[in-house]
Amino acid sequence: MKLRQKVKKAVFTIKKKNEQPRQHDNRGSSKYVKRIFVSGILSLILLFIIIYTLPQTVLDVSSLLEYTTIVALVIFLFVLVIRYFAILIMAYLYINEYTYKPTTGFFPFVSIIVPVYNEEKVIAESIKSLLGLDYSNYEIIIVNDGSTDRTKEVAESLVGYQKGKLSADVKVSLINKPNGGKAQALNAGIKYSKAEIVLCMDGDSQLSPDSVKLAVRHFSNPEIGAVAGNVKVINRGKLLTDLQALEYIEGLNMARSAQSFVNLVNIIPGPIGLFRKKAIEEAGFYSSDTYAEDADLTLKVLANGWKIYYEPNSISYTEAPEKLHQLLKQRYRWTRGIIQSIRKHKKLMVNPTINFGDTFIMWTMAYEALIWPVMNIAANLFFIVAALFFGFTSLIFFWWAGLALLDLVTALYCVAAEKEEFRLVPYSLIYRMVFILIIDVSKVMSTIEEFLGIKMSWGKLERVGALKS
Amino acid sequence: MELIPILSTIILVATISTFILAIGAYILYKIRESKGEQFVAAGPSEVIAELVTPAAAPVPAREVERAPAQVVVQQPVASSGPQPQPIFIQQQYRPEVKPLQSRVGVPTPQFNVAGYTAAQSPRDSKFMKYTSEGYVSAKEDVNAGALKWK
Which of A295, A357, A425, A453 could pair with A341 in a Cys bridge, judged by C-beta atoms 3.0 to 4.6 Å apart? Predict the structure, then answer.
């Protein structure tokens, strides 16, 4: 892509809200000390009741422990199966409904906001993919968030009226601003845009050609405030990235399909999310006070009564972390960000009269973020203890076989529904016992750190430039 | 030896190893992060940004592909059972392309959604008169200075 036109440069100021990611000050820590003290007292009372009532039961201590463990395990299995089948059935109903929905001729003007920070390796390819969209009525706004590499130079070379697939003059603009985070970068682009619909994406993502056309049609329904796209892993071929590819299909997209059945998608993914600009303005734009700005904005949009839909054929290809420490870094941020969002909107969680949909979706988020990882780790620990100390070695095999069968069936369905690579299906055999266990350990650690108020930073994932291929 | 005990042992070892790996990787990640931690100063309430935008449109206004007024997609009908009904959605907007110009110093170039209704065709106005100059609004015709019937 060559620069075909002269460019004009102008300087302007962006007012930003004084928001800092939620950290805890001294007052916050004293509040936590008080909370720990109260829970300690409550635990002591509970312990006292157990010790006092224990001699009155017909069971001895070891039998009681045994029965308690069995009851806990049965509850865990029950929740696991119900959760799985509820998501599967709702996802199936959604896909069924989606299949019969017609395409409409609705082509509003769309601004594609591309926030970039040190993306010199992938920015050109990312913009090139945007010029190949099967859509004629759009512009591209690159927001350079104070990159320290050559991103600015590469982005400036892209500014101008570029030739698109269906339009000869796709306007590409660039906003250079000092580093302030993704939320601020997106806000700068959204405020500059005059379009009715804005598409927010990551600088390292590539959109499929018909992604905009397919997603935009849902906005013909005036109740729809946002449309979530489908994120897929592009850099496959390694164990960790293949497992993540399966996770995106089986874990994230299937859940999103189920949520879309009731028009209550809880997180619009960063790599592709379309918003009615009015919905973003009503929600007060992206906030920088959490590390999951996409979850936070989604909750705000839902709280204002907008519906959110999921478009499975609007695909954004993104690079997944290739190394374990990068993956942990990503999940650490996701977990703490989601918990921060839940805590920020806890009023909606405890008061279902404000917005019942929001309350429901927040309880599911809290369950997935806080309860589910603990249950999974506890169940695995139980089988390890049962095998090592009580000799029930075969129990762990049946446990694994049950979970693997469940994951295998789900993976088959999801791979078939999304017309994905069949070779990903066998990974479901180690998906839960290895991959999800690592992720859940990280989630629990992050949750503890979040509640203790340990400081964290955004960080930046290293990109390998897989989008070039 | 039976198969189940062997598989059970393998799974047990794998699960314990995964636990150790997960905790170890997390600790290493935290050590790595703490080494690279830097002090981040609070930013100002206003930041100066630079806007780089094309200076002028390369081509004059042109017609973009027009969407059909109404698209009806008929789904294949199954031979038995409840039939899904096609949904008819009326088109609300049609894309309109105006001459593209720079936003810096010159009029704003983008597609004006609000302006679309303002720039209607004569047929869309409620009261129109047909004159030798074509359709004009009733107001324009009154101001034209012609003889009025009273």
Answer: A295
Average pLDDT along chain B: 57
Whether the per-residue pLDDT at B82 is higher than 60: the answer is no
A30 touches chain B (CB under 8 A): no
Query: Using the beta-carbon criterion (under 8 Å), do B16 and A15 form an inter-chain contact?
Result: no
CB contact (8 A) between residue B25 and residue A192? no
Give mean pLDDT, residues A179-201. 91
Average pLDDT on A70-88 reads 85
Per-residue pLDDT of A282-310, as tens digits, reads: 999 998 888 888 999 999 998 888 999 99
* SS3 letters across chain A: CCCCCCEEEEEEEEECCCCCCCCCCHHHHHHHHHHHHHHHHHHHHHHHHHHHHHHHCCCCHHHHHHHHHHHHHHHHHHHHHHHHHHHHHHHHHHHHHHHCCCCCCCCCCEEEEEEECCCCCCHHHHHHHHHCCCCCCEEEEEEEECCCCCHHHHHHCCCEEECCCCCCCEEEEEEEECCCCHHHHHHHHHHHCCCCEEEECCCCCEECCCHHHHHHHHHHCCCEEEEEEEEEECCCCCHHHHHHHHHHHHHHHHHHHHHHHCCECCCCCCCCEEEEHHHHHHHCCCCCCCCCHHHHHHHHHHHCCCEEEEEEEEEEEECCCCCHHHHHHHHHHHHHHHHHHHHHCHHHHHCCCCCHHHHHHHHHHHHHHHHHHHHHHHHHHHHHHHHHHHCCHHHHHHHHHHHHHHHHHHHHHHHHHCCCCHHHHHHHHHHHHHHHHHHHHHHHHHHHHHHHCCCCCCCCCCCCCHHHC
Percent of residues, chain A, with pLDDT higher than 90: 40
pTM of the model: 0.73
Contact A14 B49 (CB under 8 A): yes
Closest CA to A219 of A277, A132, A157, A260: A277
Determine the Cα–Cα distance for residues B23 and B26; give it in Å rounded to an integer: 5
Is the CB of A443 inside 8 Å of chain B's CB atoms? Answer: no
In angstroms, what separates the C-alpha of B122 from chain A's closest C-alpha? Answer: 23
Q: What is the DSSP letter of B136?
A: E
What is the rounded average pLDDT of the residues A305-329? 91
Site from B8, B30, B46, B64 to mutate, A interface, most A CB atoms within 10 angstroms: B8
Q: How far apart are CA A257 and CA A99, in angstroms?
A: 12
Angle at B14 between CA B9 and CA B17, to 5 degrees: 125
- Contact between A215 and A269 under an 8 Å Cβ cutoff? The reply is no
pLDDT at B145 exceeding the cut of 80: no
Mutate to test the interface with B, among A397, A432, A437, A454 (most CBs of B within 10 A): A397
Q: What ipTM does this complex have? A: 0.72
